[in-house]
Amino acid sequence: MKHTFIATLFAAAIALPAAAADYTIIAPAAPGGGWDQTARSLQTVLQQEGISGNVQVQNVPGAGGAIGLAQFANQSAGNPNALIVGGYVMVGALLTNKSAVTLKDVTPIARLTGEYEAVVVPASSDIKTLADLVTKLKADPGAVSWGGGSAGGTDHITAGLIAKASGVDPTKVNYVAFSGGGEALAAILGGQVTAGISSYSEFESQVKAGTLRLLAVSSDARLDGIDAPTLKEAGTDVTIQNWRMVAAAPGLTDEEVKAISADVEKLHKSAAWQEVLKTKGWADTYLSGDDFKAQLDKDVASTESILKDIGLVK
Questions:
Q1: Of 215, 214, 219, whose CA–CA distance to 241 is shortest?
Q2: pLDDT > 70: what percent of the chain?
Q3: Which end of the chain, N or C, is less surrounded by CB atoms within 10 Å?
Q4: Left, alpha or beta for 140 (phi > 0: left; psi -120 to 50: alpha)?
Q5: CA distance linking residue 41 with residue 43, whole number of Å
Q6: What is the DSSP string of the chain?
């Protein structure tokens, strides 16, 4: 009887589905920005789809994600339940901050989304078009202040590329960095900076409400549902896309990495995640495994070249 009872329990245990992993996701920026939105979207869908039983999000802002990445790499090593979001902004910020911790110190899982940059001004601004902004920039580069995310990130790079394409020394760009999208938005709306640069989704509600004027977007063609020219159409030959990713802790086993990758793949394939992409206006740029690692290496190299070209990295 005893052996039969134990055997029955063992068989029942085998028949049960594996328990969903609990995750803690680090958003290495203040609330309100793209990384925070990405982390909380992951949290919602992972739980809603039953991929994870419990997901917590922690904000660790500063230095374009370098502070959050360093904390994550040092404190989460070997922890298969720890994740961090990041992206193109982080690549540039790590280079400009000469960070001792890099993306080689974590385990890349997948690129999730892509989004184009938007250039905006307050609705009350006398700047009506991108050409107006470029005219002011050419007249006195230092008098035009640009508000955006962390130094060396996509927003900063975009400002530098716009200056360069306009014949202005990009090292003279007056860029004001903010640690979170909420802070940057408040400064732009308050007229503390001349113009703002960020992913379109961070400005969308204010643009639709009429409190911000959208001058241009950084796509190579006009975006559906967005009434604004591309930078190229507006006379500035620049295209750039901000992508976002999720990574796991360092020091994991192959089995642990496979399990995390499988969870992220389930999330990507879910109808709930596709709805998030649609609602947020994020492009589906999903890439995982060795393909993503190879692309990440290329992106780091090309970003370093761009930053050197516009004077942000020596």
A1: 219
A2: 94
A3: N
A4: beta
A5: 5
A6: -HHHHHHHHHHHHHHSPPPPPPEEEEE-S-TTSHHHHHHHHHHHHHHHTTS-S-EEEEE---GGGHHHHHHHHHHSTT-TTEEEEEEHHHHHHHHHTT-SS-GGGSEEEEEEEEEEEEEEEETT-S--SHHHHHHHHHH-GGGSEEEESSTTSHHHHHHHHHHHHTT--GGG-EEEE-SSHHHHHHHHHTTSSSEEEEEHHHHHHHHHHTSEEEEEE-SSSPPTT----BTTTTT-----EEEEEEEE-SS--HHHHHHHHHHHHHHHHSHHHHHHHHHHT-EEEEEEHHHHHHHHHHHHHHHHHHHHHTTS--
Q: pTM of this prediction? A: 0.77
Length of the chain: 314
**What is the maximal distance between C-alpha atoms in the chain?**
91
Q: Tell me which residue has tokens 């993503």.
A: 292
Give one DSSP letter per residue of 241-270, joined into a string: EEEEEEEE-SS--HHHHHHHHHHHHHHHHS
Instruction: Tokens for 65, please give them.
Output: 């994600």
Beta carbons of 158 and 240 less than 8 angstroms apart: yes
Yes or no: say if 37 and 188 are a contact pair by the CB < 8 Å rule. no
Buried b (16+ CB within 10 A) or exposed e, 170-183: beebbbbbbbbbbb
- Cα gap 38→291, rounded to integer Å: 21
**pLDDT, tens digit (0-9, with 9 covering 90-100), for 156-173:** 999 999 999 999 999 899
At residue 20, what is the residue type? A
